[in-house]
Recover the amino acids of this structure.
């Protein structure tokens, strides 16, 4: 039976619907690419000029399937949830402020360029929110599925994050590191495209990295012992999957992802689902320009106008606030 228009679903119901839908989409993406990669990676135009947009068939298929499977879930109980897919966000003036329904912003295939090249680190991400809700409580749930079949999620009702490793088997995320110093950190930024790479290369953080490199090459001895070289690592693969790894270290003894950052600006569909889950697990997020803490309410504000360039997010998401501060000080110097 179809839910009454405007009905409010519980966060747990949204989590269950999201996990089921995301799991089906992940499988379909894998099946489509395996069965006919030429078709999956064919470029098509969607929409009409001047608001038309290029996308790959696999992206469109994943987005269509998410909407279809969510509407079918539990005898169309979630038919009243309004789906806004990343591939169809062509209207920059779209404003969801007055929506009386629960909405879901979906990036059904985030990281198509990586999938196309046979790499991992892509995902299916969805964030459920209620625009008419109380500020700070509008985001009801976030669900992210990885190609490894792990489904990460968090809800408004809990101060923690979880992962479903296989159907019916859930565990709380393992947690984040306690790294505070940049020299000990592993950081990730989106740097595949030239513009994004140069945004970091031309920043104060790049100069700090050069200084750390020079120091690491200088073997100084203290009381007869050689000081250890820096443990610093940097990866130009970032995004939502790395945000999840930031709060889910493999084990206590291992190195993990300590910070994920972007200083060029990303649309909400590339950030909010992962940031919400990570923040629920204790990660700290600051604006990479103003250095102010990013709150759940600010994440919500970006969702209300999901296609607007003015609502893009620049940020440092970190395991500790001390590390976040160290990155920002050097980034803007």
């Amino acid at each position: 039976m179809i839910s009454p228009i405007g009905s409010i679903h519980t966060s747990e119901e949204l989590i269950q619907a999201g996990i089921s839908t995301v799991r089906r989409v992940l499988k379909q993406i894998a099946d489509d690419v395996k069965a006919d990669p030429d078709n999956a990676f064919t470029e098509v135009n969607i929409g009409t000029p001047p608001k038309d947009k290029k996308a790959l068939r696999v992206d469109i298929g994943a987005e269509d399937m998410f909407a279809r499977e969510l509407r079918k879930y539990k005898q169309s109980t979630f038919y009243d949830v309004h789906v806004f897919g990343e591939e169809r966000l062509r209207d920059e003036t779209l404003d969801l402020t007055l929506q009386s329904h629960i909405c879901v912003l979906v990036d059904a295939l985030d990281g198509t360029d990586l999938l196309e090249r046979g790499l991992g680190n892509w995902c299916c991400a969805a964030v459920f929110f209620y625009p008419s809700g109380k500020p700070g409580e509008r985001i009801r749930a976030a669900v992210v599925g990885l190609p490894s079949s792990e489904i990460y999620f968090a809800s408004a009702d809990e101060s923690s994050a979880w992962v479903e490793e296989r159907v019916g088997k859930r565990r709380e995320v393992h947690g984040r590191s306690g790294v505070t110093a940049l020299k000990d950190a592993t950081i990730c930024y989106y740097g595949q495209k030239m513009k994004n790479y140069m945004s970091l290369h031309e920043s104060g953080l790049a100069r700090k990295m050069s200084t750390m490199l020079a120091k690491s090459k200088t073997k100084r001895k203290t009381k007869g012992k050689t000081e250890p070289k820096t443990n610093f690592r940097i990866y130009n693969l970032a995004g939502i999957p790395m945000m999840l790894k930031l709060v889910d270290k493999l084990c206590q003894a291992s190195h993990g992802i300590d910070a994920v950052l972007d200083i060029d600006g990303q649309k909400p569909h590339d950030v909010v689902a992962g940031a919400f889950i990570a923040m629920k697990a204790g990660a700290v997020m600051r604006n990479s320009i103003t250095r102010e803490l990013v709150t759940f309410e600010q994440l919500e504000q970006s969702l209300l106008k999901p296609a607007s360039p003015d609502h893009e997010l620049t940020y440092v998401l970190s395991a500790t606030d001390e590390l976040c501060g160290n990155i920002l000080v050097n980034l803007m110097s």
The chain has two domains: 11-172, 182-331. The radius of gyration is 20 Å. DSSP finds ten helices and 16 strands in the chain. The longest strand covers residues 103-110.
